[in-house]
Amino acid sequence: MRFVRNGIDSFAHRCTRYLPMSPDQIAMLMHATRFRYVDERELQDQIENDVLRPHGIAYAREVILSPKDRIDFLCGSVGIEVKIDGSIQAVQRQLWRYAAQDRITNLILVTTRAKHKDIPSEILGKRVRTVHLLNSIF
Q1: HSE-CB of 94 using CA atoms within 13 angstroms
Q2: Which of 38, 69, 42, 45 has the alpha carbon at shortest distance from 59?
Q3: Cα separations (Å) of 101 from 82, 96, 104, 111?
Q4: How do 69-75 and 60-66 pair as beta strands?
Q5: Scanning 42, 57, 81, 124, which has its CA 20 to 30 A from the CA of 30?
Q6: Are 105 and 136 in contact (CB under 8 A)?
Q7: Is 11 exposed, middle or buried (0-12, 13-18, 19+ CB in 10 A)?
Q8: pLDDT digits over 114-134, tens only?
Q9: Is 111 or 137 the better-scoring residue by pLDDT?
């Protein structure tokens, strides 16, 4: 039996370890998940334990991209950055630095801040998806 939720075939994910997923599919999974957290580290832990691991998404955590840059998660060439605070300018600067890295082809910003809605959808020719967790529980 197959269960499809939000366009994602969960049967395939349970049966195939480390099934490649598109950045859109990863973003949809994040958006569909309700998180409970009090700080950014707890949110990162829940993303790891409630989204990446159960869906068999291969990832590395706290990946050093340069002496100055460490991204929260790297799923193949998809970088995931988690922000529960920070000015839009600071977040944009950080995403620009990540987008400048050759090993990054797509970025996903997971944020709880409505002010991050104005993050551009493309930086340096790389697509940026923003997942707003405004309905999650803090």
Answers
A1: 20
A2: 45
A3: 18, 9, 6, 21
A4: antiparallel
A5: 124
A6: no
A7: exposed
A8: 888 889 999 999 999 999 987
A9: 111
Residues 58-110 pLDDT 10s: 999 999 999 999 999 999 999 999 999 889 999 999 999 999 999 999 999 99
How many C-beta atoms surround the C-beta of residue 71 within 10 A? 24
As assigned by CATH, the class of the 4-132 domain is: alpha beta
Write the single-letter amino acid at 101. Answer: Q
- Across the range 35-52, mean pLDDT stands at 94
What does pTM read for this prediction?
Answer: 0.83
Q: 3-state DSSP call for residue 8? A: strand
Q: Report how far residue 17's alpha carbon sits from residue 28's, in angstroms, rounded to the nearest whole number.
A: 19
Look-up of token digits 């197959």? 2
